[in-house]
Amino acid sequence: MIDSNLLKLIPYTRAYKSHIVWNVIYNILYALFSTISMLSLLPMLEVLFSKTKSIPKEPIFSGIGGIMSYAKDLLYYNISELTKENGPQFALLLVVSLVIMTFLLKNFFNYLASYHIMHLKNGVLKDLRQTMYNKIIELPISYYSEKRKGDVMSRMLGDVGEVQNSFFSILELIVKEPLTILFALITMFAISVKLTVFVLIFIPISGLIISKIGKNLKAKSLLAQNEGGHLISIVEESLTGLKVVKSYNAESNFKGRFNDSVTRLLKLSNSIGNKNNLASPLSEFMGIATIAVLLWYGGNLVLVQKTLDGSAFIVYLTLAYNILTPAKSISKASYSVKNGLAAAERVFEVLEVENEITNKANAIKKSTFEDSISIKNINFRYEKEDVLKDFSLEIKKGQTVALVGQSGSGKSTIANLLTRFYDVNEGSITIDDISIKDMEMHSLRGLMGLVTQDSILFNDTIKSNISLGKIDATDEEIIEALKIANAYEFVKDLPLGIYTNIGDSGNKLSGGQKQRLSIARAVLKNPPIMILDEATSALDTESEKFVQVALENMMQNRTSIVIAHRLSTIQKADLIVVMKKGRIVEQGKHDELIAMNGSYNKLVTMQSFES
């Protein structure tokens, strides 16, 4: 029965079907000339032992049906003529040339078959990786809150490569090697039926033994690949959190986790490797055992019964041995395919994840923001417990609305829902009376600029990081955005200015500098709606004041949703919404809320006391 993951790979091969066709054609020719090259040894041996069949006159071609006997008689006629005219050495030269030519053609066709399989394998690998990366980028944020990033990386890089290495050995498995065996067996039957029956008894026995050894290989390969993903996750987490690991003297803890994983992987790899390594020598031993029986039985036919010619028996043995190589290849390929099936299972597990946050058919493209954002009676839960409960809020165009409250009150969740990183469980969010679920996501996110609490930067230049939302931005526009974000004062002093590489996650910069670059990125995008999720929390007091002025200037002509930890930064907001456990407990302007002497006043008093 064909594995379902094998069928799923077929669409990826369609773009390369010409390579498949040519590979099959050249493999057929290789298999044919593999047998002919062995058969060409027969006239050479007969010339050597002076047993050449004498053909007195040139044979006449009688039609396609008799082409084999015509070719054979023509060869022996030429050998007879050369021997008569020039002696046996010229006849030997002819048959040696014939042997060289057939072996040359055999290897030439093998090269051409390998050339086309290489293009097929590399092309499918590229397409699979592209599809996998596109899927990884498109999957919602919620998917990665449950998965280890290292495991996803392992599937993307290691497992896709394993699929490439393993699966395309199937073409060899069903065309090249079986045909090589088939052509050899046909020729062997023509030489001696009795001997070939002997061979056919031994082949199924050896196949059965080899398949028994390969049992459970797919299950162990799957375990090994999962463990490989876990190992990469440990490395990725260790590097990401290296400061924490070192500051808490947790090196031994992480070394222990890594060593445990490496040890488990070692045991699985050794178990798989032992079975893989056993396939080749075992198949060769079974083949040699067959050859040994043939030598004994065939030797009797030649020496005692004299029913088989010695030259024909030597050629027969070379043909029998010629079956061993493809038989070994088939056993190795079958093991390899089992590894590939396990890898494919992990690859397609990601590719088949249903993305719940997608564009509707005929989604609305919206490039402007005209009136208001309306959040109506929304409930949202990450798992079981509601994070937002019956939450409603109206944000008018041009307003600056601040969301404040203790950690876990649901402030950042509002930002995640507005950008459709997550979808609401109940209720609705609309922009200009259009549900964000009806809007094309690209255009929805085009309306928004997001500055997160964690300044996410990439290992690239300052220019590349800032121009993420506007790829064609000029240097002047980037410098202007940096000035607004109060970042140009340190960027201009860098060795290469905006062309300076900032390192992995921007680690060449301070926390405050990284956050100012994040703000500059949002400024350059120039969206009508700005979402600032604790945007100034990483800044020192002096930088915060500069950035706050820049943010206020930037927010004058746009709608802003400010999720604030430091309440001093949002006192000029048009509306301050105080949240507690997913609900709104107070809302109004700063002075109004202070006058209420409620939750907001308590938060302000606590922060004033802390500062």
Automatic annotation (TrEMBL):
UniProt protein name: ABC transporter ATP-binding protein/permease
Keywords: ATP-binding, Membrane, Nucleotide-binding, Transmembrane, Transmembrane helix
Molecular function per GO: ATP binding
Domain ABC transmembrane type-1: 60-339
Main location: membrane
Membrane-crossing segments per the record: 20-40, 90-109, 181-210
Source species, domain of life: Bacteria
UniProt KW Cell inner membrane keyword: no
The ABC transporter domain, residue ranges: 373-606
Keyword Nucleotide-binding: yes
Topological relation to the membrane, as annotated: Multi-pass membrane protein
Organism: Flavobacterium taihuense
Subcellular location: Membrane
A Pfam family it matches: ABC_membrane
